[in-house]
């Protein structure tokens, strides 16, 4: 619309065009802004830290790996599937939303070539993922949003673009991640009152 107005100066006054350009620039500035959501205190649990490293390595997919855990010092050791740690870490609705599936080599080949929301290709190699059960986080919500929730759950700060904040708030609410939901709502309120 703006180029058309610029070609026909009689269609609108110059001040209107300048005001519209300023509004567009302000909108562009706000969409470029990244907000940082403070996470709870860093997770001290070595198993959760290890799981977080696995999550980042597998680019939005959580491998069905068994982790050796001890609940408290005098307890006998127990073995838990890694994805149960998410539930223990305070994201109760996430487990029920995950789709557990056994990947065939052909399925994993397809998934390895797909790009996620951020434009990165999944690093899975066909021979590594053949016959392995994965929890596909992309079935829950946008990969970036799930990743943000998991970062928060595991004590990492979350950077999110201002225009994505309301979507992240909805995902956090859906997954019952109360802390992140509160943080998002506060940031949204702050943006409206600026």
TrEMBL record:
Gene3D superfamilies: Potassium Channel Kv1.1, Chain A. Residues 1-35, 102-125 are annotated as: Disordered. Residues 20-29 have a biased composition (Acidic residues). SUPFAM superfamilies: POZ domain. Residues 63-192 form the BTB domain. This is BTB domain-containing protein. It comes from Perkinsus chesapeaki (Clam parasite).
């Amino acid at each position: 619309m703006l180029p058309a107005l610029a070609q026909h100066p009689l269609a609108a006054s110059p001040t209107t065009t300048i005001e519209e350009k300023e509004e567009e620039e302000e909108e562009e500035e706000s969409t470029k802004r990244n907000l940082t959501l403070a996470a709870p205190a860093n997770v001290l649990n070595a198993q959760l830290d290890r799981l977080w490293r696995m999550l980042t390595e597998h680019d939005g997919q959580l491998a069905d790996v068994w982790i050796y855990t001890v609940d408290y010092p005098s307890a006998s050791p127990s073995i838990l599937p890694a994805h149960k740690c998410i539930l223990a870490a305070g994201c109760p609705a996430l487990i029920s939303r995950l789709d557990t599936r056994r990947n065939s080599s052909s399925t994993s080949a397809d998934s390895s070539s797909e790009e996620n929301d951020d434009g990165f290709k999944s690093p899975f190699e066909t021979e590594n993922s053949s016959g392995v059960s994965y929890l596909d986080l992309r079935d829950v919500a946008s990969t970036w949003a799930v990743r943000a929730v998991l970062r928060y759950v595991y004590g990492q700060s979350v950077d999110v673009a201002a225009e994505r904040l309301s979507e992240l708030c909805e995902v956090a609410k859906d997954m019952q991640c109360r802390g992140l939901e509160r943080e998002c709502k506060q940031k949204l309120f702050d943006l409206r009152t600026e």
